[in-house]
């Protein structure tokens, strides 16, 4: 049986680890609206709720005040997030050797649009996205869910993520962690800084 390569989207496949959504939204509303937007995202946690699947993308963006939420989802993804140019060559080389599984914290519709827009779907055996399953990293429940869904043990999996906290939670399940170190975090385990380095490690 092939090993499972669990791989994160933001900070790994996408270069942006924290996302640019709040600055993007500020740019589309006048300054007097910024406190309201900040409150909705940071206090009422609308983005977090969308990431748990409690709000659809359209509901989330509409509540922020966007009159054409579908357009702004596409605009944000297409023009304000960056696909790492190394991912496609890496995936073409290794998706036959490993079973790729996306393990991502994201709004359901955004994740689907990203993978379709960048022609990524063919690489993944499965996509486990917080908005679809109502669980998010580093909650141990999402790793238990992932292993049960895939029908494998932790020892069958490697996990590439840009967050040390996420990796440590996965390691508790026997999953082999690999830090994709976009943010210069301190970590005493396996570290890569590019898909070329990840390819050499594998």
Structure summarized in a few sentences:
With 202 residues, the chain is α/β, with parallel strands linked by helices. The protein is built from 11 helices and 6 strands.
Summarize the structure in words.
The longest helix has 12 residues, at 69-80. The protein has a 6-stranded parallel β-sheet with strand order 3-2-1-4-5-6, with helices on both faces. Helix 7 links the parallel strand 2 and strand 3. The protein is of the alpha/beta class and 202 residues long. It has helices at 21-27, 34-43, 46-51, 57-64, 69-80, 87-94, 108-117, 130-133, 140-150, 164-171, 195-201, and strands at 4-7, 99-104, 124-129, 157-161, 176-180, 190-192. It contains 11 helices and 6 strands.
For the largest beta-sheet, the strand count, sense and barrel status come to: 6 strands, parallel
| SSE succession | EHHHHHHEHEHHEHEEH
Please give the alpha-carbon distance between the first and last residues.
16 Å
Based on CA atoms alone, the radius of gyration comes out at 17 Å
Properties at a glance:
single chain, 202 residues, alpha/beta, 6-stranded parallel beta sheet, 6 strands, 45% helix
């Amino acid at each position: 049986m092939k090993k499972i390569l669990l791989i994160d989207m933001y900070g790994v496949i996408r270069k942006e680890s924290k996302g640019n959504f709040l600055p993007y939204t500020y740019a589309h509303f006048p300054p007097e609206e910024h406190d309201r937007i900040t409150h909705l995202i940071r206090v009422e946690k609308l983005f977090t709720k969308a990431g748990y699947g409690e709000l659809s993308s359209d509901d989330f963006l509409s509540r922020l005040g966007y009159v054409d939420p579908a357009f702004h989802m596409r605009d944000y993804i297409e023009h304000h997030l960056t696909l790492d140019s190394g991912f496609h060559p890496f995936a073409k080389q290794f998706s036959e050797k490993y079973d790729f599984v996306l393990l991502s914290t994201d709004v359901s519709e955004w994740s689907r649009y990203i993978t379709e827009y960048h022609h990524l779907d063919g690489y993944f055996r499965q996509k486990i996205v917080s908005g679809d399953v109502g669980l998010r990293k580093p909650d141990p429940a999402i790793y238990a869910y992932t292993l049960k869904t895939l029908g494998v043990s932790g020892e069958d999996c490697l996990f590439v993520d840009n967050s040390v906290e996420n990796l440590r939670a996965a390691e508790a399940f026997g999953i082999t962690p690999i830090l994709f170190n976009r943010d210069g975090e301190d970590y005493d385990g396996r570290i890569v800084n590019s898909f070329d380095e990840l390819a050499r490690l594998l």
